Amino acid sequence: MSKRREFLSGIRDELPILLGVTPFGMIYGVLALGAGLTPLVAQAMSAIVFAGSSQFLAVKLIGTGAPPVVVVITAFIVNLRHALYSASVAPHIKRLSPLWKGLLAYLLTDEAYAVAITRYNVPYPLSPNPSGDGMEDRGQHWYFLGAGLALWTCWQASTAVGIFLGTQVPASWSLDFTLALTFIALVVPALKDRPAAAAALSAGVVAILAYGLPYKLGLIAAALVGIVVGMWSETKWKRSG
């Protein structure tokens, strides 16, 4: 597949997810202004941080007068899950240039990862390559780029709309619920075997039980439990099979 077709396919496959991302970005823009951020700073956070969950948490802490060090550490903890994404993607992009790796690292978010890793995992007959690792570059990084840029553009635009609308968006719309729907739509299609289902179920249970932990540590606990359970389940079922 050509670079152009890969790029456009990435954009196309990301579009359905953007339906849930758009109101999420608008809500962030509204909340950022409510927390006392200027429009410029609110928009700059979307461009620099580019991570919805940590941005929401950061503006909430800023609005309550939390010390800057607490805001930074909390956002860092929430974003630790991206280390898991990078570990998953790294084998597929290791032969790319540092510029490509840096660009894709910047665009590596929940929604972009979910689409890109599915593309990387599509089975193809592999031809020999110099590294002998069984992984061939078929231009999927262009697909990743298309998906990531589509998400980035949507996030910046929806943030700007939220900043423009400000408090004019009525709370009765409950737009924040679309975030949960978006992540459900990302997770469910990926549950194709018992280890994946076990990992998702255990992580979900821990996330609920640990919801009250400070600084969103429940998210980290849920992620770690899900990883451990998934790895244990995969090993167990392989042995029994």
3D structure, described in words:
With 241 residues, the protein is an all-alpha fold. The chain has 2 domains: 3-173, no CATH class; 191-241. It has helices at 3-34, 39-48, 52-63, 68-78, 81-93, 98-107, 110-120, 140-165, 177-187, 194-209, 217-240. Helix 2 runs antiparallel to helix 8 (140-165) and helix 10 (194-209) runs antiparallel to helix 11 (217-240). It is globular, with a radius of gyration of 19 Å. The chain starts with a helix and ends with a helix.
Protein traits:
mainly alpha; 73% helix; 2 domains; 241 residues
A few lines on this structure:
With 241 residues, the chain is mostly helical. Helices cover 73% and strands 0% of the residues.
State the domain count: 2
Q: What oligomeric arrangement do these chains adopt?
A: single chain
> What does the main sheet amount to?
none
Helical stretch tally: 11
- The number of strands is 0
* Low-pLDDT residue intervals, each spanning 5 or more residues: 125-135
Could you give the distance between the termini? Answer: 37 Å
Q: Tell me the overall shape.
A: globular
Reading the helices and strands in chain order gives HHHHHHHHHHH
- The gyration radius over C-alpha positions equals 19 Å
SS-derived structural category: mainly alpha
Mean model confidence by pLDDT: 82
Helix content: over 70%
Work out the strand percent.
Answer: under 5%
